[in-house]
What does this fold into?
Amino acid sequence: MYPLFTTGMIDNNQNLLYGLIIGILFGIVLERTGFGSSKHIAPIFYFKNLKVSQTIVSAIVTCSTLIVIASYNGWLDYNQVFIPDTYIWPYLVGGILFGGSMVMSGWCPGTAVVGFASGKIDAAVFLLGLLCGMWFYFDIYDSIEAFANSGYLGRFTIHDLIGGDIYTSSYIVTVLLGAFLAIFMNTMKSIRDKKEKQ
Amino acid sequence: MNGKDGYWHPLISGIILGFVLFISFMVAGQGMGASGAFARISAQLTYLYDSAFVDNLYASKYLFNGNALANWTVVEIFGIFLGGYLSAMFAGRIKQGIDKADNYPTYKRLFFAFLGGFIMAGATRLARGCTSGQALDGAATFSVGSWIFMLAAFGTGFIVAPLFKKQWGI
It folds into this structure.
């Protein structure tokens, strides 16, 4: 029965070793897709290329489908899979700040590690800013603690919200993300391409 | 598998990434993360200079046993560095430089890189994760919170993007 670690099939050290291997694979995929350079990341916000959205959508649809298949067959205990708890207001504000700082810096924490490994100085400076910002957050945390824990809903999934089960959620996620990519992003890109030709 | 520009097609990358993420859930019971590792590194560095930091309201949950770095995400982020380095090396893509438009001033680009990192740190603590730990992992496991985060992040990104257009020469 999976997950191996939470069901006690492997111990903590084995889990860390697998974590290292999973990280290596993650790093390889990010680098091979071009995310070791913010020049391949920033264009998504101008609908110039769709690499970021294509990768994210295809990864989410693939993984969620595999999770559904694995739980249907009784291989994976979905209830033992870690899902971050939902906190409505801090997620909204955190998301807004995240989006702004992603456009400003051209990086996010994972891609910046690959950028740093590829020799990008802006990635190194970004990571330094990230470390300093973490320290700043720790320092001011007692004054924002109440807000940071507001709108708490616990482990809250799409099928908890609208009813149904993980099949309902999987269907909705696949349709919404597919439509987002095939309709919204592609339309915005072709509008942009047309403008550029003029 | 490589496209014209020497990179994998993003849809194929995404499928491979989805499999890696699935393996991560099957083995560790959690998906990949990134920002949490930097929170831990920052807490550990501060602790080395000031051991009273162990009582910090937020960082105490990392430092309770004196070592914030003995953690799955920290080991995994080291793997990301290693995998990224090896991949870039074999592709001949390791090159010191700064990603920006040619005519954009270097000091401005580095200032925005630093400030962006600084702001993003707090953003990831409020949102309990970043593009990996929150957007990817949460959306793949049907969390509602991840959708709030993703819509807010990408919505804001599209809105403020024109302000930073010159940086990329787009």
Remarks:
- The CA atoms of residues 61 and 174 of chain A lie 6 Å apart.
